[in-house]
Amino acid sequence: MVADADRRKRIAVVMAICAPIVALHFMTGADYRGPVRWFVNGYLIDILLPFYLYFLFGLALEAKSRLRLWPIRAAVVLLLGASVETLQGLGIPVLGRTFDPLDYVAYGIGTGLAATVDRQVFLRLLPFWRVETGGPSTNG
Prior knowledge:
mainly alpha, single chain
């Protein structure tokens, strides 16, 4: 029963991360005219998307596959973003149409931030975060 309670807590944390990012994505976009428009329209989602995908993948894969290991999960998230950007650069519109080489940097920042928060913050502050059989913060 403790494992179920811990899993529910981990789900709550990941949803608390994902929900505002998804909401922000829908509130911004091409029509956004607020402060630092160039950054919000150009890079913010490119940082936040890998951030939340890292945690979402970790939650979904807690006890399955090698993707539960944080370095592998981080590499997959980064590779996914880089693949999307490369396809855009080749003229294939996948999740957008505009190629920007700085998006690779944004994906790296988002993935790096997620791994840092996972390993350095959540593992230290949230006793339920560690999953011995794999998970958001497996010792991998």
